[in-house]
Hints:
Layout: H1 2-10, E1 19-20, H2 22-34, H3 39-50, H4 56-80, H5 82-92, H6 100-108, H7 112-124, H8 129-137, H9 145-157, H10 163-186, E2 191-193, H11 194-199, E3 208-216, E4 219-227, H12 233-251, E5 254-258, E6 262-263, E7 276-279, E8 288-289
Parallel strand pairs: 1-6, 4-5, 5-7
Antiparallel strand pairs: 2-3, 3-4, 3-8
Helix pairs in contact: 2-4, 3-4, 5-7, 6-7, 7-8
Amino acid sequence: KMAQYADSAAAPAPKKLKVLNSVLYSRICQFVNGYHGLAIDCELELRNRYFPHVDPKALTCILQAELFHRARGQHWKHDQRGKMLLKAYEDQKDMYDNALLIRMACAEGMNPVALCRLLLQEKFHVRLRSHISRLLKHPHLIEDARLAAAVQQCLVSDNQEGPITDLRRRLIGEEYELQLKTMAKAAGIHFYDEQDLRRMGYDKTPDIKMIVPFLYKGAVINWIESKANFGDPKSHKYNIQQQLQSYCNRFGPGMIIYWFGYLEETPLLPDNKIGITVLVDFPAKEDLVLMDLGQEE
C-alpha cells in the first residue's frame, strides 16, 4: 500500500487543456454570459468547479474577452443611466457598508470599476477620462470619504478593469516576452529585440526579429510575436490586421505564440496564408533548423 501511495504521489498531474475545440469553447462562453455576479467570482467558478481540466489562464482570457465585448455593447445604456445610478447610491449609502457599489455593480451587470467611473463622472461633473483615471489610481483624492472607501473596495474586487488589473496584465505580458527571449537564446537563435529594432528606425516591431531566419517544420521564420493571451479567431484576425500583416510585409513570414492557448481552428484560418505560423508554446528544438553562423565556406 505504501509503495502504491508513493507511485501515485510521484505521478505528474495531467496537463490542462490549452487548445480547445469549438464545443468546449462555446460552453465556456455560455457559462460566462449566463453568470450573474462579479467577474472575479465567475473566474473562480470556471477554474475550480466547472472547467478544472482547462488551463486556468485560458479561462481567464476567455472571460476577459467575453466581458469586454459585452461591456462595449452596453456602454451607451450605462452612460445614459449615470444620474439614476448616482441617485441610487446617494439614497442607500447610509444603509450599507463599503460593499454597496459592489452590490449595485452585480445588479447592473457591470464591472465595479466601470460603475465607479460612471459615478465619479456624474458626481464631480468630470468628463476627461484622465481625471477619472487619476481618482481611481489614487482614491484618497476623492473628497467624499465614504465614496473613496467604496471605490477602494471596488478596485480590489474587480479583475477586469482598473489600475491594479492594468498593472497585472502589463507584468504578465512582460514576463512572457522575457520567457520568449530566454527560450530563443537557449535554442541558439540570434535575434534583435524591440529596442534594437526601434534604434534601427522601425516603428511597428515584433517582439523578436531573427538576425538569420530559421526553419520550423520546413517553414521560414523571420520573427516571433509573443501574446500572453488566448487566441480565438476574432482576436487573432484583429492581431493580423493591427500587427502581423505589417510584420509579414516588412520582414517576411513569422510566428505568433499564444502562451495561454487558442481555439483549434485559429492556426487553420485562411488569413494565416500570408506567412503566419500559430503555436501555443516555443517550438521544440527537434522541429527547428538553424544556420550555423560559425561554419566556414
